[in-house]
Amino acid sequence: MQSVILCVFEGEKREHQYFNNLQKHFLDGSNIVKCSFGNDIYELYKALVKEEYAVDTLEVIKESKDVPKNRELLAGYEVDDINQIYLFFDMDCHDGQYSEQKLTDMVDYFSDETDMGKLFISYPMIEAIRDLESIDEFMDKVVTLQECVNYKKLSARGVKELSDPRKVSKNMWFTLVELNVKKACRVVSDLLENDLEQLALPEQLDIAVSQCQALEQRNIVFVLSAFPIFLFHQYGQDFISGN
Fold it and tell me: Which of 18, 109, 187, 221 lies most in the core, judged by the most C-beta atoms within 10 Å?
């Protein structure tokens, strides 16, 4: 039986659109089941705390009250049928439920795709993927906590190709991966190398902690997209080398 990958998205529209494009270019042929939780990471946190973490990720997603169709979509799957689980959520630091502890607890808990799942966060939210005006400005691009409230609108300032998820080219994905991995390294270590040969993708928990510290100390969040970082996690240096 072919390996089954479960991808869980926060929302039901934009995340799926970008991931469908990504899948077409890089994961075509993979057996991927896609669904949505229908709410933010802090509601997922509440659901897990309520069950004292004694519940499988698959069951939590099946029982999502915000996306009742998940029960039917995932009805034929048991825990042992799923080989890998990936979750894609937003930092949503402007949410009233946000706290560093909750966010880092979630990233720490979802740290293994072959167990409970691996969580990738978009900072500040999914729209970070299109917030690219130029290569140089992206490396320093941040948003303030106040700007996060209107970030969906602000992020539309990026290049036109990224505004339509259906039109993102394979070459653009390579660019997004390189930029986001370099920037993630910079966020964590405050160093920026000129090439990726010396870089390893930081742990997702280290990125989350660094982002929370930047928010607390400087009232900013570094713009980072989850999907390009996920791609580098999957393929590593070979992904960039094959560009």
Answer: 221
